[in-house]
Each structure stands twice: as C-alpha cells, then as structure tokens.
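Researcher: Next entry in the queue.
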Amino acid sequence: MFLESSELYDAIYHFKNYARECERLRALIADAVPGARTILDVACGTGEHAKFLKEHYAIDGVDLNENYLRAARLKNPAGRYTRADMIDFDLAAAYDVVTCLFSAIGYVRTADRMNRAIACMARHVKPGGVLIVEPWLTPDDWKPGASHIHGGEIGADKVCRMSHSSRQGNLSVLLLHYLRSRPDGIEHYSEQHELGLFTRDEMTRAFESANMQVRYDAEGLMGRGLYLAQQRT
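Model: Structure for this entry, 233 residues:
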C-alpha cells in the first residue's frame, strides 16, 4: 500500500486538526474519567494524537503497520507501541482510557470482527474507565460515486490523492490514486480500501455485548460521531 509510508500518510492527512481534536478529547475524558492518567490508542497510526496528548497522559499504542509505529515512537518516545490486530491483542495491562479514532474501526470490515474488536478493547479498560470509538460512516451516510482530492508536501515533493467511492454489499470501497512529484518526474500509485458500513444499532449492540453502557456523541471530533462506553456497574 502507498500509505505504508508514515511520511506520506502524514502529508495526505495534514488537513486534520489534531490539536483541536485532542482538546475535545481531553474535555470528554475529564468528564467521563476525572483524574485519568493512562491511554491506549488502538489503531494509533503515526501517533499524531499522542503528540498532543502526551503532556497530559501516559500513552501506549497498537497498530498493524510497523512503519506507523516507528513514527509514533519518535513522536512519543515514552510510549509503548505494539504491532497487533485490533480484534485480537492482549497487552496484559488496563488503561483509564482506550481510544480507537479516525474511523479505524471500519477496517475490520465485518460486523463479527467489529464485535470482536470492541470486546478486545473493552478488556483493556480499567474499572471506571472509558472506551472511546470514532466510527466510520453508516450505510445510510455512505455516498457511492463521490470523489475527493487532498494534497500535501514532503519536503520539496508535492503529493496528492484522489478518491472515488463505491459500495459492495455492506462494504464501502475507496479507489485511491496518488501522485508524488520527484526531481526526475511524477510517480503514480493506486490502491483500494474496504471499510465495513455499520449501523448505529450494530455498534451499540457491540458495546452492550461487552457489558458496557454506551452513549453516542453526534458531533464527535470531526463530524463522524463518537461512542463513549463504560463498564456496567
């Protein structure tokens, strides 16, 4: 995948206001778990959220991409970063807060795997802690045929990505084309991403099956909503 490169990932997603998102996260955490000190960021990517949160919490991370984990370790040297699948990991530790942000939950693709991921994350939440999950789009919100373009820079190189959306059953499909300028020409790459389209009810049932009470914040961090769940007492 083109975005195996952490520097390309950060260049494409520079439009995300991580600092503002982290301010919002801190407010939500303070409300749900006053005095929270530890966070596990599942599907942490290149560690951009940790870069803004590390002054306030001890943050560890999990991701499948070792290149992203190397970048995250540089941004947050105090954190422990582990290569693992979100549906099946065991860190032998629990945290005040467990997060799964930027719609990474969609990459599990199926409802069964989503349920396993939520259950796995819930097992890593301390009593009284909170699990915060930023969802991907619902089936009703997904718009096949839409196109988007994002650009960025890596040093002197210019990069851009154009996407086109389609749907296959309960999967949203993104065809992605990338261009990167080089001193000797322009490189072109393409790849396809598939993310599961889960309803609000399906997501809610996953938390409830993990013995958690869940509430839904419609705005969330970037307009995609947010689930905040705590163990039933």
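Model: The radius of gyration is 18 Å.
Researcher: Noted, moving on.
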